[in-house]
Amino acid sequence: MSGVTRWLLLTMAFAAIAHLGSVWAAPYLLMRVATERLQMGGEVRVNTMQQPDRVTEAARAVVRPSPDLAYSICTFDLSQGPLHLRAAAWDDYMSLSVFAANSDVVFVRNDRQSAGAIEITLALDGQRAPEGREVVISPSQTGIALVRRLAPDQARFNAATVAAAGDICAPAS
Q1: Is 151 helix (H, G, I), strand (E, B) or coil?
Q2: HSE of 46 in the Cβ direction (CA atoms, 13 Å)?
Q3: Where are the domains of the chain?
Q4: What is the pTM of this model?
Q5: What are residue 167's phi and psi, to 5 degrees?
Q6: Alpha carbons 22 and 1: distance in angstroms, whole number
Q7: DSSP letters of 101-142?
Q8: Which of 12, 101, 134, 141 is most enclosed, with most CB atoms within 10 A?
């Protein structure tokens, strides 16, 4: 094998390893950045539902949020046990989504699949969850829970903010 061939094979092997590594790592890195932005540099506590201001061109924590939606966001950490997640009832489109640390969708349900509030217990495999609610197993200890409500104008956004006061992200009991 010539020196050039060996050099080309080593370069291709390095490129393949670098590509596979970046494809694997990218979702985790992007999710970490999103979580840090949503926690506003540590000002927002983990395992707490928060309602950010209405999305505008200047005010947005993540890329491409919809200005027609009101959000409630919980960055979660299951290291201390399961969490109770609740999206309070809303009279229009609403959904609860849970994303793992690598950005995989763990759970999603909307108002057309559930009448009224949507409630689950989020836990790691092997954690003991209280009875009475649907248990969703997260493949990762950390992630993001997101409630979306259709709120195309300021009046509906204000109403969604009132509804969001009933959203929960707290230790399950």
Answers
A1: coil
A2: 13
A3: 41-171
A4: 0.76
A5: -75, 145
A6: 30
A7: TTS-EEEEEETTTSSS-EEEEEEETT----TTSEEEEESSSE
A8: 101
Report the largest interatomic distance among the alpha carbons of the chain, rounded to a whole angstrom. Answer: 73
Please classify residue 83 by burial: count the beta carbons closer than 10 Å to its beta carbon, then call 0-12 exposed, 13-18 middle and 19+ buried.
buried
pLDDT band at 11 (very low <50, low <70, confident <90, very high): confident
pLDDT of res. 29: 62
CA distance 167 to 35: 19
Show Cβ contacts of residue 23 under 8 Å, excluding neighbours closer than 6 positions.
none
Report the residue count for the chain. Answer: 173
* Count of other CB atoms within 10 angstroms of residue 9: 11
Considering the domain delimited by 41-171, tell me its CATH architecture: Sandwich (2.60)
Say if residues 96 and 169 touch (Cβ distance below 8 Å).
no
Q: 112 with 125: CB under 8 angstroms?
A: no
